[in-house]
Write a structure and sequence with these properties.
Shape: globular
CATH class of the largest domain: Alpha Beta
CATH architecture of the largest domain: 3-Layer(aba) Sandwich
CATH topology of the largest domain: Aspartate Aminotransferase, domain 2
Structural class: alpha/beta
Distance between the termini: 61 Å
Number of helices: 18
Bound molecules: pyridoxal-5'-phosphate
Number of strands: 11
Helix content: 40-55%
CATH superfamily of the largest domain: Type I PLP-dependent aspartate aminotransferase-like (Major domain)
Strand content: 5-15%
Organism: Capsicum baccatum (Peruvian pepper)
Family: Belongs to the group II decarboxylase family.
GO biological process, one term: carboxylic acid metabolic process
Modified residues (N6-(pyridoxal phosphate)lysine): 321
Strand order of the largest sheet: 1-7-6-5-4-2-3
Keywords: Decarboxylase, Lyase, Pyridoxal phosphate
Largest sheet: 7 strands, mixed
Length: 517
């Protein structure tokens, strides 16, 4: 071991920065807080100026920033200058009104301020006593939201079930798989873990596969049941039933089904009612993943998509996607909280307390993967209160209306086609083979796909708007997902112009089949 040399200046620095007023001086917090709010307000004002999809190359930031952390303090003003100069180019602007990629992750004033309040209070509510309001507010808002989307009473605290806010759907899936797994293994014996089988469709989000992988279930026992055009790529109950029967024949143990309301590729809805009935017959745990579309169910006209959910064991949606609640806010409801807490609880001596022992309280550490947890309920509470149900429904409906408008624009241009039914606020479309036939005599599906991929990259690399794609049933499609908080009809019309302009140019330059590739 070498001797550590102490620089007297460093010692002075340490003493200086240990002055608590530097860490959280209320007046300094007020000053810098105002600067930060102004900075963000200006960002929202100017957001249309930036290319929506970041145009930087990998490793760009290392070239711009210092090799090591600064020894001396730097001012917030200077840091924010660097944010604008160095960080902004490396952002894909998810809140831009011209962002139509993935699914939206919608900001709102109430959501941002809720996050700010959570960060400001910074309580760690792993159990009830660690911050009773954090737990109790979460129980209350989860019942509020559950009622709002018309979940059956059995899934709410008021009906013997209950809800928890987690970070992401993937975590919610993992927790419910583990609950189902332990419930089953308690019955059949731990040694049978390799016999457990989980079911989903080939359209189920890959976060489910990730959750299965972590859960210790054999990956060979993951059934991604193929879907077909005949059912618009929804999971077919007959296929499920057949797959389960085959597994039973070979002595495997059907455990878990993940059904989706609003798939990520095309927003298809799996038929919950018949799927849940089959699952019930075999004692399979059903989780319903409604990450994006579940939010629309605050409007009564979308609630029919949840018919059958009363027979599901668990249900989740991402309020950060389409309920204005800022990443991360995954709301999970379970019918039988005991199965969840049985699998996930640990109570070390240091966390023993009267309230827990009395069994009168919820200790949310037993409802999730990690121990520590943020007071996320605040932002959801702020969103629900600040906008009220009336406005929240109007926001959702306005996105759906804009999607209908975009769909109409696409439908009247015969060079384009809609390739999947629009259920919510996303339109799946492509340049049709017909448009290419004017240029190329014999058009193969693969060439249509390649041409559409070229169109999308051309659009994204110009930065005016941003979309992403999906491939379903061999068809490459562009996904136009509406929901950014500042998007209005003029942005939809502008986007359509941008799309058509790129297609015009690419079609014009197209002289032969070879030029598609
Ligand atoms: C976005 C999405 C997910 C992934 O959610 P995470 O919260 O990132 O795990 C899962 N399922 C569906 C249907 C989604 O749309």
């Amino acid at each position: 071991m070498g001797t550590v040399k102490i620089n007297p200046e460093d010692v002075f620095d340490v003493q200086f920065s240990c002055n608590t007023s530097t860490l959280l001086d209320p007046e300094e917090f007020r000053r810098q807080g105002h600067i930060m709010v102004d900075f963000l307000a200006d960002y929202f004002n100017d957001i249309e100026k930036y290319p929506v999809r970041s145009q930087v190359e990998p490793g760009y930031l290392k070239k711009l920033l210092a090799d090591s952390a600064p020894n001396q303090p730097e001012s917030i003003e200077k840091i924010l200058q660097n944010v604008r100069k160095d960080i902004f180019p490396g952002l894909t602007h998810w809140q831009s009104p011209n962002f139509f990629a993935y699914f939206p992750c919608i900001s709102s004033t109430a959501g941002i301020l809720g996050e700010m309040l959570t960060a400001g209070l910074n309580v760690v509510g792993f159990n009830w006593i660690a911050s009773p309001a954090a737990t109790e507010l979460e129980c209350i808002v989860m019942d509020w939201l559950g009622k709002l989307i018309n979940l059956p009473k059995t899934h709410l605290f008021s009906g013997g079930g209950g809800g928890v806010i987690q970070g992401t759907t993937c975590e919610a899936m993992l927790c419910t798989i583990v609950a189902a797994r332990d419930q089953m293994l308690d019955k059949v014996g731990r040694e049978n873990i390799d016999k457990l089988v989980v079911y989903a469709s080939d359209q189920t989000h890959f976060s489910f596969q990730k959750a299965v992988k972590i859960s210790g279930i054999k990956l060979e026992n993951f059934r991604a049941i193929p879907t077909t055009k005949a059912t618009e790529y929804a999971l077919c109950p007959i296929s499920l039933s057949k797959t389960i029967q085959e597994d039973k024949k070979t002595g495997l143990l059907p455990l878990f089904l993940c059904a989706t309301v609003g798939t990520t590729s095309t927003t298809v809805v799996d038929p919950l009612k018949p799927l849940c009935e089959i699952a019930k017959e075999y004692g399979i745990w059903v989780h319903v993943d409604a990450a994006y579309a579940g939010n629309a169910c605050i409007c009564p006209e979308f609630q029919h998509f949840l018919n059958g959910v009363e027979n599901a064991n668990s249900f989740s949606l991402n309020a950060h996607k389409w309920l204005f609640s800022i990443l991360d806010c995954c709301c999970l409801w379970v019918k039988d909280p005991n199965s969840l807490t049985k699998a996930l609880s640990t109570t070390p001596e240091c966390l023993r307390n009267k309230a827990t022992d009395s069994k009168q309280v919820v200790d949310y550490k037993d409802w999730q993967i990690s121990l520590s947890r943020r007071f996320r309920a605040l932002k959801l509470w702020l969103v629900l209160r600040s906008y009220g149900v009336v406005n929240l429904r109007n926001f959702i409906r306005s996105h759906v209306k804009m999607a209908k408008h975009f769909e109409e624009l696409v439908a009247v241009d015969e060079r384009f086609e809609i390739v999947a039914p629009r259920n919510f606020s996303m339109v799946c479309f492509r340049v049709s083979p017909l448009a290419l036939q004017e240029k190329v005599i014999f058009v193969e599906e693969d060439q249509v796909n390649k041409f559409n991929a070229k169109v999308l990259e051309s659009i994204n690399s110009c930065g005016n708007i941003h979309m992403t794609h999906a491939v379903v049933g061999g068809v490459y499609m562009m996904r136009f997902a509406i929901g950014a908080p500042l998007t209005d009809y003029r942005h939809i019309n502008m986007a359509w112009d941008v799309i058509r302009n790129h297609v015009n140019v690419l079609l014009k330059n197209l002289s032969s089949v070879a030029s598609i590739v």
